[in-house]
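Internal ticket - ligand job 740, magnesium ion:
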Amino acid sequence: MRHTISLLVENKFGVLSRISSLFSGRGYNIESLSVGETIDPQISIMTIVTSGDDQIIEQITKQLNKLIDVIKVVDMTELDHVEREMVLIKVAPKQEDKAEVLRLAEIFRGRVVDSGQKTYTIEVTGDEKKIEAIVELLKPMGIKEFVRTGKIAIAREGVKKG
Amino acid sequence: MKITGAEIFIECLKKEGVRYIFGYPGGVVLSIFDLLYDNKDIQLILTRHEQGAVHASDGYARSTGKVGVVLVTSGPGATNTVTGIATAFMDSIPVVVFSGQVSTPLIGNDAFQEADIVGISRPCTKYNYLVKDVKDLSRIVKEAFHIAMSGRPGPVLIDLPKDVTASKAEFTWPEIKIRSYNPTYEGNKWMITQAAHLIAKSKKAVIIAGGGVILSNGSKELRELAEHTEIPVTMTLMGLGSFPGAHELSLGMPGMHGTYYANKAIQESDLLIAIGMRFDDRVTGRIDAFAPHAKIIHIDIDPTSIRKNVRVDIPIVGDVKRVLTVLNKVLKEDIKEQWGEVRKAWLRQIYTWRHERPLSYTYSDEVIKPQFVVEKIYELTKGDAIITTEVGQNQMWTAQFYKFDRPRTLLTSGGLGTMGYGFPAAIGAQLAHPNKLVIDIAGDGSILMNIQELATAVLHKLPVKVAILNNHYLGMVRQWQELFFNERYSYSHLHSDIVPDFVKVAEAYGAVGFRATKSSEVEPVLKEAFKIKKTVFMDFIVDWKEKVYPMVPAGAAIDQMLFEEHKDKPEKKLKAVK
Ligand SMILES: Cc1ncc(C[n+]2csc(CCOP(=O)(O)OP(=O)(O)O)c2C)c(N)n1
Ligand SMILES: [Mg+2]
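stdout (structure tokens):
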């Protein structure tokens, strides 16, 4: 099963490499990973989406906890939480599809962040299902490029994080 | 007053009470070496290879319980330490390695003798550092020693760029607090109570003791537990010495080359009490057939060891010594059950297995049996020696036939299985215990992997004894080829009866060399060697056909064991007994 794991880590040189080499060295897979600073500039937060059975996920969280630079590990999947991901899609529609592309962007509450002679670049934020849905719908119109941020997650109000 | 990074380095080691550094010089660490030149408090032991330096510091650490310290140069000096670091990592040994590094502005430029040792050593250290600012140096050193020794111990590497050791700062010895590192020492009391009840109710319990018992200095508590509950104890390779091997409750080693009765007892048990061990595949054999009837209590300081390989009913994360102290107290004060009768029946059953198939070999008057050499060493030392081993058959025969009665008397590379470990480790142990008999039980293949350390031993007048079980082969490889590869001895024949002449090698370095070719010569050679206060090599020409038995083939359940073939049934070479 898929799990979204959120970790607070020391914002130090080499930390990302320690974490990614833990996954590769032990044969766990990373579906996505995103990193950013927190309000405290000495601490970064990472969101990792991974998959495995219960025993593997237990090992992953324990192994992450064991890393000296990791301050806290939370398996978001077990909590009530909000997940978001952003995608930038560059579409090159035929003349007759242009209106449809803009209509779809609007339905998905996307924004056109760049437009040129041949392409629109659309920004969409949402959970995984939403992102996948818009990508599917835009595919026939001619997606030239698309970039996803990877998932980030946050617990809902009042949820205790272990 | 401001002092240089190199001087701060020395001050830090003094604060940590370091007496010996094992090392090798080179360009970027010369300023540190210069300070060591006339330093009275710290002596550098110049090994002849950086791998030897790390193993020596590891032997020092295992035999004393203190941190071993290494200092090497950048590039090749640093990369030469990797096998030593990985060896210490797999066996959880506290070692701090200082590697020189090119100056910070040059890092990343493929400078002369630059290697990304922080990157290279990341997966085999508990933690590592690149010091970028001299102001951080003393804090980093203090943290490194703390991390190496605390929790589940392990090696830590500190990379020291040349310009950092040259620049100046005030020396401070700060309080350290690593917010993200808080090992759990106290076991959960409720879990411990549950464990006590399970132990009290069990009918066929077995304790499996591992290296964690030794690392936490918990041998006394383990013995108290075993004797109070009358539960037999089997010790993994790393756990040998944690419980007296000659004790009536000792079952010897379990697993691939374990005793029949230890493996039988595990397979038939209704409760396994695993203490400071991690269910290595050499112990469990086929995992889904391991201890099928047993509930499992697992005590370990490292939460990742628990439920990694086997299902666990009662997990207890904590320091072995502290957990056992509480467990013993609960068992003595709160448990009312009487277990005398049930235990007697179980111990009787084990006694039957023990007599059915004891550890054995066929003695010969003529050719020397390697097991005979190990037995004689035990007999003559009465267990009062520090034994190191190399890897292969020599290691397994030592584990089987030497009864380790005290912790920290067997130093062996268990996790990584590093050939070439034993001799430098013996040097480190001898330095820490000048009046002890320190013996490396070696193979003719392994000893050549760090033979250059003869110079180190001789020059420092370290009376290390090396007993080479010379079977002319990479014996353990040959054994597998005989049993599982149709006797095709592909590249395992070393011809060590011809090359080298170990007696002459020893003499060339200024050590003493002896050779024994007949069983009757074994005891006199050992006695003579133990008397001499010098480095001694003993070349025991042993039966090259001898194999380590019992043996569980890789991937089989641990009670599917092969035994020595019997003369009365020559048609059947191997016999698997369930
Ligand atoms: C550095 C290293 N290389 C290879 C091996 C694989 N290996 C395990 S045992 C062994 C044979 C060791 O031969 P020897 O030292 O003569 O010991 P024996 O088994 O003959 O007692 C080998 C090659 C190893 N453990 N370590
Ligand atoms: Mg050999």
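Auto-summary: The interface with chain A takes residues 118-119, 122-123, 126-127, 130, 147, 178-181, 302-304, 307-308 of chain B (CB under 8 Å). The first strand of chain B starts at residue 2 and ends at 4.
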